[in-house]
Structures are given as C-alpha cells and as structure tokens.
Amino acid sequence: MNADEQVVRDLFAPHDPAAGTRPDPERMDQARAGIQTGTVPASVRGGPARGRRPLLLGLAAGVATLLLTGVTLYRDPGTAEATPPPAPLSVLPGELDDAGEELRELAERAAARPATAGEGEVAYVRLSRWNLTLSQDLDTGEEGWGIAPVDEQVWRSPDHTGRVVERPRPAEHLAGDRGPIDALFEPEATEYEWSHPDEGLQFSWAPGTLAEDPDTLRRQLAEGDGIENAEVDTAEVFYGLQRLYQEMPVSPGEQERILRMLAEDDGVRLAGQATDREGRTGVLFVAEDRLFSEGGTLQRRIMFDADTGMPLYHETVAMEGDTTDIADGSPVVNEYVVLVESAWVREVGDLP
C-alpha cells in the first residue's frame, strides 16, 4: 500500500462503519471448501466481447453472488448500518458551472507540454479499478459485499496482437455474508494474450487518426461506440473519451484538440477540484447521460491534471434509476478507473 492510498483510506475511515473489518480465517477456509468458481467473459458496451478479461462468479449451495464491475456505493456518513465505504473520489462541494473557460486554459497547458517521442507502436496502459461483489444467501436472505481492487496492464499493437495482465488485491471492507467474497478474490494474477483481429482488446480508433476539426473529432469519438445519431450527445463523447484514455496514450497535441472541442460543448459542466484514490488532485468535469442509463440518469466524470491538462481518471455514477436501489437511492459509482500510466513501447510486454 503506498502512502497516498493510506492517506485517502484514513480520510474515509471515520465515515466507514466497516473500516476495521478483517477476513475471518476460519470463515475463509470454510468458504474455499464449499464454493465452486468459474469464469465468464465480461462484455463492455461498444467493445469486442470476445477475449475480454474473465470476471469471477461464485455459486455455492444456498448462495448467489453478483459481480458488478467497478462499483462502489455511497451512503450518507451518518448512516449507522454497515455499508460500503464512500466512493474513492473526493470532490469539494459546489455547484456545477460552465466549463468552457477552464477547458480552454487546460488546452493551453496541454499544448505547452513537451511532446515525448514514442519508443514504438505498441500502446501500453496501466489502470487501477475497483470491483464490488454483492452476495445474498438464498436460504437466510443475508446480504454481503466486498470491494476487490484490481491493477490492470494492457498492451495493444497495430498488428492486432496484445496482452492483458490483471493483479487483484485482497478484498476490502468485507461485511455480511463474506464467505463467497473471501473465496472469490484471491490475489492471483491472470494473463491473456491474443493474436487475431477478432480476439482480445483491439483499438477502437487507429493510433494517430484523431481528427483536427472539432466537429469531426466530436463525431469520431462518439461513433467509435458504433452509435450513429443525427446529433452527437455529450454523453457519447464522454463515453468515447473514457474508452480512448483506457486504450492508448494521447499526445499533447491530441489532448489540446480534445479539450478545445469539449470547451465548445454546453453539455460539459465543471465540478471543480477533486482528489482520487491515489491522492492525485485535478479538475473534474461531468456530463449527464440518459442514453446508456436504461431509464435512469448517469453522470460521466473525467478528471484532468490542472498543470498539464492530461487525463488522470474517470468514473461513471448512477444518479437515479434501478441501480441506485441497492444503495437506498443514493448515487452508485458503477465504474471507477485510475489512469496510472500510459506510453508507447516497442514490443508487447515491454514497460516504459
């Protein structure tokens, strides 16, 4: 655990009734003996389903387990019952404001950032995610939950080869029916490679093809999702950016164009200063999303470095709708991704 992570956890601890919870070794042994685990592919809307990283689901007698990718719950700190901790994002309170001026200033800072020559054509991205598993005993109705942080490294090559390595960390904030969660999330790395265009995690946009024209760039980011609307919605653009930043490094020039394009979009709102789980501080922007929310409302959020304009992390929050039922109507963070590192390298498997 790094120092920044410890500081953030310490800040959250007073508001988290389960902060001191630790796995029961006897319960873990019982769970391991009585549970069967398997793998299922996780599909991502707009991306190829084949070759996606495996997500663990556990089924034992009388127990049902549900895995929600990148989910944490938020509930009022005054709530007495044990609930998942607040979302790892910390935002200074304030109203959403017009974002144009701030985005244009960030664009200037991005443009002033020295360009670094890539050492190759393979895109390397290292991410940090949070996964929440909810479980319920079918006989007793007892509910449980736990958060499983995952570190992920992905290499993508223009020749359609690549690799993904996942390193789960021990589950945190376990509560309720903990047995299935204790057994499912062991800190063992998994690795998957591919070598065919129809396999693995391919580029949604060919490297170096982001448009110069703002209107063309806006549509390019949105239609990378395969959606062709007469008008491009801000949420589609944000969704495209979330995927872009997870797939490849962006150059200072590309990031400048992206920020200037966002500055002309009235649907982008400024949330202010924010701090992520890694202790990094930046400027947070949000867009409301009703396209992918299945009758509810989402907020797509992206944080940029205040000094360089480069992306630091993104998350998607269910503000209202069926998903928030599991948090008694409170917002539910259904995706949280820290953009730890990205670079161009020579070969799949190389590190910057």
UniProtKB/TrEMBL annotation:
Residues spanning the membrane: 55-74
Domain of life: Bacteria
Region (Disordered) location: 1-47
Keywords: Membrane, Transmembrane, Transmembrane helix
Protein name, UniProt field: CU044_5270 family protein
Organism of this sequence: Marinactinospora thermotolerans DSM 45154
